[in-house]
Amino acid sequence: QERSREGGRLCLYSNNFWTWVKFLRPILNSQKYFKAHDTDIIISTLPKSGTTWLKALTYSIVNRNNYSINQSPLLISNPHDLVPRLEFQINQEDLINVENTNSAGPRIFSTHVPYHLFSNSIHKSKCKVIYICRNPLDHFTSLRPFLLENEFENDGEPPLSLDESFDMFCRGIYPYGPFWEHVLGYWNANLRNPDKLLFLKYEDLQQDVVLYVKKIAEFIGLGFSEEEDDVIKGIVQLCTFENMKNLEVNKTGIFSGNIIEVKNCSFFRKGQVGDWANYLTPEMKEKFDKIIEAKLQGSGLKFKYSA
Ligand code: A3P
């Protein structure tokens, strides 16, 4: 019980230390066993930063010559089923099985791990990494309902209050490490090697998704020709929040990873920039502003908090 209480400091929802230990083993396995190919694309994010959207866009860009928009597998499958997460392949055999994934084109995987926890094979190969982040307050605001809706294992204990979990977020107590360390790890990696890592922000995609679809395509070496303007429009339209949210598969389906089950609908909540203002007080914003300003000082990284 003591350990469980202490463990409550580890995450934003669960009071149970062991819930989160469960997430460590697959991370370690993916580090140990995953063998990146030079042509792989790794989508990396903190949860609730736009992973689903980026997966759908990248999958559509990569497969645009394999399927027309009205035959896209995204119409019947959740993006998380099409782009597997490395940490969900929890044993060696599963990781070897992914050798066959996306055999028609570059393989696409996702991960939530901090940059410094990538397997050596990702660092050493010529694979490309695309990172998307989101302003921390929208990230925090989006995560809580997601965890609550999916009733993440909590051993029957009540979830932490908003104030408690915000306090932990401010102190950097979080399953994937402090927010600022995650984003800065990828930000600095992009500065060091922009050909290896593309750094995106959810708010920028919301502002001009066509521009970023072109950037992603160029980055992975699959740039669009001038004749493909309609293809770009089709991809953007297919992947809009409204369109994806209203697909039958995303209204009713369940995504099963090896350690969790998630309702597909919970990946599509509001899809807005600035929703934090409906949940967090001006005092909370002020407190976090001070923290993030100090943590990001000198990095050049800034976030946009309203649309
Ligand atoms: P909100 O909870 O603020 O609505 P992730 O995919 O990393 O889990 O992030 C989920 C967040 O992205 C949710 O934010 C969700 O609504 C939003 N989202 C999902 N699909 C989207 C899309 N196609 N376009 C824009 N936002 C999307």
UniProtKB/TrEMBL annotation:
The keyword Chaperone does not apply. Coiled coil: none annotated. Keywords: Transferase. The keyword Magnesium does not apply. SUPFAM superfamilies: P-loop containing nucleoside triphosphate hydrolases. InterPro entries: P-loop_NTPase, Sulfotransferase_dom. Its EC number is 2.8.2.-. Residues 38-300 form the Sulfotransferase domain. It is an enzyme of class 2 (transferase). It holds the Pfam family Sulfotransfer_1. Belongs to the sulfotransferase 1 family. This is Sulfotransferase. It comes from Penstemon davidsonii. The lineage of its organism: Eukaryota, Viridiplantae, Streptophyta, Embryophyta, Tracheophyta.
